[in-house]
Amino acid sequence: MSLTGTLPSTLPADPMPIFETWYREAREQKLQPNPDSMVIATATPDGTPAARVVLCKKLLLQPGYVVFFTNYDSRKGHEIEANPRIAGVLHWDSMNRQVRLEGRAVK
Fold first, then answer.
1. Which class for 18: exposed (0-12), middle (13-18), buried (19 or more C-beta within 10 A)?
2. CA-closest candidate to residue 97, choices 5, 4, 24
3. Cis upstream peptide for 15 (omega within 30°)
4. Count of Cβ atoms closer than 10 Å to residue 43 Cβ
5. What distance lies between CA 83 and its chain's CA centroid?
6. Cβ contacts of residue 93 below 8 Å, gap of 6+?
7. How far apart are CA 68 and CA 56, in angstroms?
8. How far is the CA of 56 from the CAs of 2, 31, 59, 74, 82, in angstroms?
9. 59: left (phi over 0), alpha (psi -120 to 50) or beta
10. Which DSSP helix (H) or strand (E) runs through 82?
11. CB of 67 within 8 A of CB of 20?
12. What is the pLDDT of residues 48-106, one digit of tens each?
């Protein structure tokens, strides 16, 4: 399976190893000004969306977490507390890659 630019023709059941490889390569190659930046999208309980850029601090392959920090008293923190379903994107345009995330935020 080659990871040098495109996804494999058959996607694995667990995409986290590909994500970890791409994230490590983005950080090591230093082609992207800030390879740790990611967009996080939240929504209020009534469904009003909001997106902002945060920094990915690390990946935990098991249990499959992407770690970022936030101020719990911020709008984002309040939205996550009320509705922990979030989406995220890491985009490395210099490498023609992006990773989309969807899931539940946990403290």
1. middle
2. 5
3. no
4. 17
5. 18
6. 32
7. 5
8. 25, 17, 8, 18, 22
9. beta
10. helix 75-82
11. no
12. 999 999 999 999 999 999 999 999 999 999 999 999 999 999 999 999 999 999 999 99
Is residue 78 classed exposed, middle or buried when 0-12, 13-18 and 19+ CB atoms within 10 A define those classes? Answer: middle
Contact (Cβ atoms closer than 8 angstroms) between residue 101 and residue 66: yes
φ, ψ (nearest 5 deg) of residue 100? -100, 140
- The answer to whether residue 3 scores a pLDDT higher than 50 is no
Listing DSSP states for 15-80 in one string gives -HHHHHHHHHHHHHH--SS-TTEEEEEEE-TT--EEEEEEEEEEEETTTTEEEE---TTSHHHHHH
Q: Which residue has the tokens 């630019």?
A: 5
d(CA 69, CA 76): 11
How much of the chain exceeds pLDDT 90, in percent? 79
